[in-house]
Amino acid sequence: MKKYFLLVVLALIATVSNAQTLSPETTISLLTVSPGAELYSTFGHSAIRIRDPRQGLDFNFNYGAFDFRTKGFYIKFLRGTLPYQISGNYFENDMAGWSQENRAVIEQVLNLSQAQKQGVFDFLQNNYLPQNREYAYKFFYDNCSTRLRDVLRRVCKDSLQLSKTLHADSSYRQWIDLYARKNEKLWADFGMDLAIGEPSDEITGANGAMFLPDNLMDGFDAAKINRDGKWQPFVLSKQLINRDMLAVADKEKELITPNILFWTLFLVVLGFTAFQFKNQSKSFLFDKILFTIAGIFGWFIFLLWFFTDHGVTENNLNIIWTYPLLFPIALLLKKERSRAWLSKHFLAYGIILIFFLAAWNFLPQEINYALIPVVLILCVRSFFVWWRIRKKLSSF
Fold this sequence. Notes:
Shape: elongated
Order of helices and strands: HEEEHEHEHEHEHHHHEEEHHHHHH
Strand content: 5-15%
Number of domains: 2
Radius of gyration: 27 Å
Number of helices: 15
């Protein structure tokens, strides 16, 4: 069945490629697809629809596709070197898939001249050729939305005027935060905040903000195009085209959010630490586990920073509190006599964490506030380790 479907799609693409000249009845639209339940669809999707009723053509071009069968898929995905590509499909097939996932699709018919319609079509056909279709995907700078923005700019040139002020005042990170929270994806937002670095705090401007499908849609709504010497709206019409196919569904809220979990853990650890102080505990088991986990996260951030090509994971200040060398240093903690340098190490680490907390709102990178209790836990335990080792050394 899959082979049959693939052959049909390939035949369609061949037909599209041969249909070089579009009729005057052709419409070209931007499709904006709402977020889905899966993590990869958290921020929605953009596609271009080309419909020529005279030639029986109704086809979508999508950027941001990838092949799970790519050799070394997971390694390339993590390193940011996975080749992405433009894909094509019947409009009705894409719509069926999006509607099945209960994702709304908004269509904006664009105000293009016949020459511009042909130009968009020719560009996308050429881009779909096997030797041209792959590209290096960048989440902020080169994705399914920015590619379509650039296609229209390239074809329309100076006749297309996009707003320079719409959505211009936020950073990439702030857009991610807003979008993820609006769609009840607090853990996804937390994970991205942990992984991305200082480049994400750059202000997008109106142009950069279009990396999000909804912002591209808003940008096209506000855009003007020069037709016959007159500036006209770039969007001729706009409508939700699969209203009747959508089921009514309530968003499932995440009952345990990062804030709830980590502040609860902080209170538990605070009580546990007080208990250990009172009972003169000599065990470092909890600290070995805690600091090993923090160190492993530090190595993860280090690898994202220096050994990937995502473009937005460099200069990540979360490496201050995760501190990669915590693993394996944490494994050196012992019930028996520990060396003096370990005591000094955890004292210095605790002091650095205090400065980190004090500078939280002044750092060049926004740090997720749900991490405050995590840093407090590490701070409390680092001083406990310092006190415990110092007390042991003084008893010898």
